[in-house]
Design brief:
- The chain is an alpha+beta fold.
- The protein has one domain.
- It is built from four helices and five strands, in the order H-E-E-E-E-E-H-H-H.
- The protein is globular and about 75 Å long.
């Protein structure tokens, strides 16, 4: 009787091992099939965001002229210059913040040559649906917290609750502060001429 139980246990372990092995192989195969399409979709979304945030027409390929700088917390800012006949017409900056209500937020912000904001596009976030998620439209030209045309400058943009002039998303002040933190980080990086020179040299 005891011998039979031992045999059944071993068989169960072998079956479980086989099932686990097959499942792992299947997951790996599916990942291989989907990794490239996911990467391509992400790249396409980024390219669309660049075109959305940069005003007017440009004849270069901003993604081919991208330059980057490393931030103090080990992350990166990416700068995509748009040019028309060799002249800069705007720069799209892929920026981020870790201060969102649910953590990481990534956005693409467009700046005109004078440093004013031309537009933005939210690339990634996990903010609360119906609250922080409203950042997609809240800070646009037609939104209540419109930042289009503003120049963050050295002081940076702040919500009205912090003494600034930007209306925060209703019931989502933390998300609003985080959004502006990302915008201000992009503006500061763009205006840092030393960082620009260093990043340009590194990319060549």
């Amino acid at each position: 009787m005891e011998k039979k139980l031992e045999s059944n246990f071993i068989n169960m372990v072998m079956v479980l091992f086989a099932v686990t092995l097959i499942a792992s192989a299947a997951v790996g195969y599916v990942y291989t099939l989907t990794a490239e399409p996911i990467a391509n979709a992400k790249k396409a979304k980024q390219e669309n965001a660049i075109r959305l945030v940069i005003p007017g027409e440009f004849d270069n390929t901003p993604s081919a002229d991208v330059w980057k700088i490393e931030t103090t917390d080990g992350n990166e800012l990416e700068f995509y210059p748009a040019k028309k006949d060799g002249e800069l017409v705007g720069t799209a900056v892929k920026t981020y913040t870790n201060k969102g209500f649910s953590g990481y937020i990534s956005i693409m912000v467009g700046f005109k040559p004078d440093g004013s904001i031309s537009n933005y596009s939210v690339l990634e976030h996990k903010e609360t649906p119906g609250l922080g998620s409203k950042m997609d439209l809240w800070f646009t030209k037609d939104g209540r917290g419109n930042i289009i045309g503003k120049i963050p400058g050295i002081a940076g943009l702040k919500v009205s609750k912090d003494g600034g002039e930007v209306d925060a998303i209703t019931a989502a002040t933390i998300s609003s502060r985080a959004f502006l933190d990302a915008v201000n980080r992009a503006s500061a990086g763009l205006s840092d001429s030393d960082s620009y020179s260093g990043a340009t040299e590194q990319s060549n």
